[in-house]
Design goal:
By secondary structure, this protein is of the alpha+beta class. Among the domains are: 12-23 and 412-447, no CATH class; 92-312, Rossmann fold (3-Layer(aba) Sandwich). The protein is built from 9 helices and 16 strands. Strand 12 (354-358) and strand 13 form a beta hairpin. Bound molecules: guanosine-5'-triphosphate (GTP) and magnesium ion. Guanosine-5'-triphosphate is lined by residues 102-108, 139-140, 143, 156-158, 179-181, 201, 239-240, 242-243, 282-284.
Length: 448
């Protein structure tokens, strides 16, 4: 892909919540994410950094279908806040997911992005450092911004997809920090399904790139899953360039990684020239994250920093008019109201619009609308929203259901044609047939 040409440091502001998402069971430690006004390490040359106060929302408490949720399901009064909803934010929204092998540095980079965009105050950082020290995981202190639960911190491994937000004058971002460990691939898939852009994190440290890239390593599995789940642009961060086994001037290592990844990414379906961007970084040191590298530090790279790149990568084309399509990602109750959470894939939604949730065909007017951060009058394609719809009952709504507007109903069918892309079969079950045990029935199989 041609290098994005932004030359100035991005002016960044953040409105953020550090939260785990999907099947979240413990509340995110929202008090650990506060705005700061002092300059950040990577922003020393930047005089343009501005910070806005974050609006931290309380975490959604997930509902299971069988939980008591009868009291006043979204029956209908409008629940606009006293300050009123904000008008539509005209800046584009992009969801980015950090993927890659275990310990590549995904959480560190996601956490550092929040630090460098002014989200985490010095007191909170001290707290993370202390927790990390007590757990004998000193080098994980930045990762602990995203890894919020005890299990994640004790093991130094992300389990749930962490979610946070930041914005630049040009775009708003939702950050999804996926787990790298192979046991948590189902959680990772949930994160990738919400993303517009994949950030594949590679550790350049000796031996670590090799382990992630070998057969069965998560670098391969994550890249393939991202492509098959509709992520068409990949930013590949070659991380840990500061490590003593690498070094910023180590062009040979950088080239070696690229030369091994490129044929693989091509075979996965990426157009390497147009859809893959490589950037060397150090998540731990915060280098090449918001501002560019000092001239001479990395003689073979003089391109844009990570966040400069995020500001210019192409967004997926999404129609803002016509049929509204919001696949349901989650549901939760807050203040006695039933909220549906999802990402607008197409169309625009406003207060008072008449919506229907398929396939159960329940629905009515929109009585609340907003992002995780604020209430809104109108939201457009690409935004992650939460919404209350009249006449909906929690037990009739599941992940994967579709919200549409009354004028453009979703087709409901019991049979449909699919393309099945088989990545790898289990060694002890190397066959795939119409009889393969699954929660659906194949009526006909055609080899393509
Ligand atoms: N030297 C160096 N170490 C790093 C860098 N980035 C991350 N690390 C270290 O790598 C280890 C793993 O970092 P994490 O951010 O937890 O890695 P992860 O990819 O989120 O790991 P999982 O969530 O388990 O998949 C920690 O000890 C980090 O300090 C870097 O840029 N340089
Ligand atoms: Mg992690």
């Amino acid at each position: 892909m041609s290098e994005p040409g932004a030359s100035d440091s991005p002016q960044t502001s953040t409105v953020a919540e550090v939260a785990t998402t999907d099947n979240v069971s413990s509340p995110p430690q929202v008090d650990e994410a506060k705005p700061v006004s002092e300059p950040q390490p990577d922003a020393v040359n930047s005089t343009t950094t501005t910070v806005t106060s974050p609006t931290v929302t309380s975490p959604p408490s997930n509902l299971k279908d069988d939980e008591e949720d009868e009291e006043d399901d979204a029956e209908g009064e409008i629940v606009k806040s006293s300050t009123g909803p904000k008008p539509k934010d005209e800046r584009d929204h992009m969801s980015i997911v950090f993927i890659g092998h275990v310990d590549a540095g995904k959480s560190t980079i996601a956490g550092q992005t929040l630090v460098l965009t002014g989200q985490v105050d010095a007191r909170s950082m001290e707290k993370f450092e202390k927790i990390a020290k007590d757990l004998k995981r000193e080098s994980w202190y930045i990762a602990f911004i995203m890894d919020t639960n005890e299990e994640e911190r004790a093991k130094g491994k992300t389990v749930e997809v962490g979610r946070a937000y930041f914005s630049t004058p040009k775009r708003r971002f939702t950050v999804l920090d996926a787990p790298g460990h192979k046991s948590y691939v189902p959680n990772m898939i949930g994160g990738v399904a919400q993303a517009d852009l994949g950030v594949l994190v590679i550790s350049a440290r000796k031996g670590e790139f090799e382990t992630g890239f070998e057969r069965g390593g998560q670098t391969r599995e994550h890249a393939v899953l991202a492509k098959t789940l509709g992520v068409n642009t990949l930013v590949v961060l070659i991380n840990k360039m500061d490590d003593k086994t690498v070094g910023w001037d180590n062009k040979a290592r950088y080239d070696e990684i690229q030369s091994k990844l490129n044929p693989f990414l091509k075979s996965t379906g990426f157009n390497v020239a147009k859809q893959v961007i490589y950037i060397p970084v150090s998540g731990l040191k915060g280098l090449n994250m918001t501002t560019r590298l000092e001239p001479g530090l990395c003689p073979f790279y003089n391109g844009p920093s990570f966040i400069e790149t995020l500001d210019v990568v192409p967004l997926p084309k999404r129609p803002s008019t016509g049929a509204l399509r919001i696949p349901v990602l989650d549901k939760f109750r807050e203040g006695g109201k039933l909220y549906i959470q999802g990402k607008i894939e197409a169309g625009t939604v406003k207060y008072g619009d008449k919506l229907v949730v398929y396939p159960n065909k329940e629905g009515g007017e929109v009585t609340y609308l907003g992002t995780d951060l604020e209430e809104r009058e109108e939201c457009g394609p690409g935004e992650n929203i939460k919404i209350c719809i009249q006449n909906t009952k929690a037990e009739n709504i599941s992940q994967g259901f579709m919200v549409s507007d009354e004028a453009h109903p979703v087709s409901v069918v019991s049979k449909f044609e699919v393309q099945v892309y088989i990545i790898e079969l289990l060694p002890h079950k190397p066959l795939f047939s119409a009889d393969t045990n699954a929660s659906y029935t194949f009526t006909r199989l055609e080899k393509k």
